Amino acid sequence: FQPPVWKNCPPPSSANLAAKICGIKDGATLTSPVRVKASGNSPAGVNQLQVWIDGKKRYVKWGDQLSRSFPLTSGRHRISVSANDKYRGTAKTAVTVTVP
Asked: Cα dist. 32→5, 11, 61, 78, 93 in Å?
């Protein structure tokens, strides 16, 4: 028996270390709380994802898939996700969103 593999955000290619944010377009206007869905991939495998909002680390998830809601105040916010693997380091991606 194989348990189902849960994927909320299709991972990027495993050719290089990469991070991906799903479901949020750069420049989007969203209501709070904002759900961040992300994934990471690398030839060595991703062992940790981090969510940074406005330059502050807000969440750490061990594994290569993440889905979490964050309450945000009105205004513009930069949401960054970093994917960390054991050997190559870190890959980052980011979007800027506005909360009315």
From this structure: 29, 25, 21, 14, 21
Q: What type of residue is 92?
A: K
Distance CA 34, CA 96 (A): 12
Cα separation, 14 vs 3, whole angstroms: 22
Using alpha carbons, list the distances in angstroms from residue 46 to 27, 38, 58, 80: 27, 12, 19, 16
Q: Specify whether the CB–CB gap between 13 and 81 falls below 8 A.
A: no
- Using one digit for the tens of pLDDT, what is the confidence trace for 15-58? 999 999 999 999 999 999 999 999 999 998 899 999 999 999 99
> Residue type at 44?
A
